[in-house]
Amino acid sequence: MSIVNFDGWPTTIQISAAASIHKAVDRGNALDRRGLGMSSRKSVWDPEHWRFRAEEARTVADQMTHEEARTIMRHIANDYDRLAKLAEALLAAQERGATDD
Question: pLDDT tens-digit profile of 63-80?
Answer without folding.
Answer: 999 999 999 999 999 999
